[in-house]
Amino acid sequence: MKIAVVGGTGLCDWPDMQWLGKQGVQTRFGEPSAELHTGMLNGVEFVFLPRHGGAHSIAPHRINYRANIAALQQVGVTHILAVNAVGGLTEALGPGAMAVPAQIVDYSWGRECSFADGEAGPLDHVDFSEPYSAPLRQQLLASAAALGYWCFDGGVYACTQGPRLETAAEIRRLQADGCHLVGMTAMPEAVLARELGIDYASLCLVVNWGAGMTREPITMDEIGRVLSSGMSRVCHLLGHTIGSLAQTSAPVT
Ligand code: HPA
């Protein structure tokens, strides 16, 4: 088992982490968003990749998702924990809440979204009924419970194109479609991992209410405040999850 964390907005670098190394990787799709970082959490080595680049400069629709996932596969990654900052669309999911979504509706467009499209690789139609790995989801939730963190189990992640935020009418449409969280980066990341047989789950941090759900406009200042108070919980939870996953997969001697 080799675990990677793909960090999103608010997790372009890992607070207080002494990296063991950073490795530039070339793939046939080009370069990933950043060098692959190697770190150690709870005695377990893991790989870290900030999907927006180390300086948070790559917009969601411009991320080279194929290069990112191919690079992780090239270094032997078998499990990906994705971190996504999202908007909340239901009452239980206000700013500061964490969630491990169970489903995705993809509203993004024009992104290179497959390794199996007949050009990048032989045409295939992967099963994606359950877009996230059940064991990885369960471990994230078990770790949250062990640490005493409230974390929503389930929900539907709406992946919009960005980089702009939604209109109020678009948010009402997402709610009517049964979505609970809105972000810009779950897709095609999740399906690319599935195509390569990599286990993948997402830990979402809600950083704002969906557009139009409150009277106040959504500001990056406010999002930044929620991110900085929430990311330490996210990192702690990821550390516990990585430690537990490595333990459950360790051969019994
Ligand atoms: N919409 C889309 N993506 C987001 C949001 C949002 O409100 N908040 C954080 N990422």
Q: How does this model look, in words?
A:
With 253 residues, the chain is an alpha/beta fold. It has one domain: Rossmann fold (3-Layer(aba) Sandwich). Helices cover 28% and strands 23% of the residues. The chain is built from five helices and eleven strands. Strand 9 (156-159), helix 3 (168-176) and strand 10 (181-183) form a beta-alpha-beta unit. The chain starts with a strand and ends with a helix. Bound molecules: hypoxanthine (HPA). The site of hypoxanthine has 12 residues, from strand 5, strand 10 and strand 11.
List its traits.
11 strands, single chain, 11-stranded mixed beta sheet, alpha/beta, 23% strand, 253 residues, Rossmann fold, binds hypoxanthine, globular
Q: What does the secondary structure layout of this molecule look like, with pairings?
A:
Blueprint: E1 3-7, E2 21-23, E3 36-41, E4 44-50, H1 65-74, E5 79-88, E6 98-100, E7 103-106, H2 134-147, E8 151-153, E9 156-159, H3 168-176, E10 181-183, H4 189-195, E11 199-209, H5 220-249
Parallel strand pairs: 1-4, 1-5, 5-11, 6-8, 7-9, 9-10
Antiparallel strand pairs: 2-3, 3-4, 5-10, 6-11
The structure holds hypoxanthine.
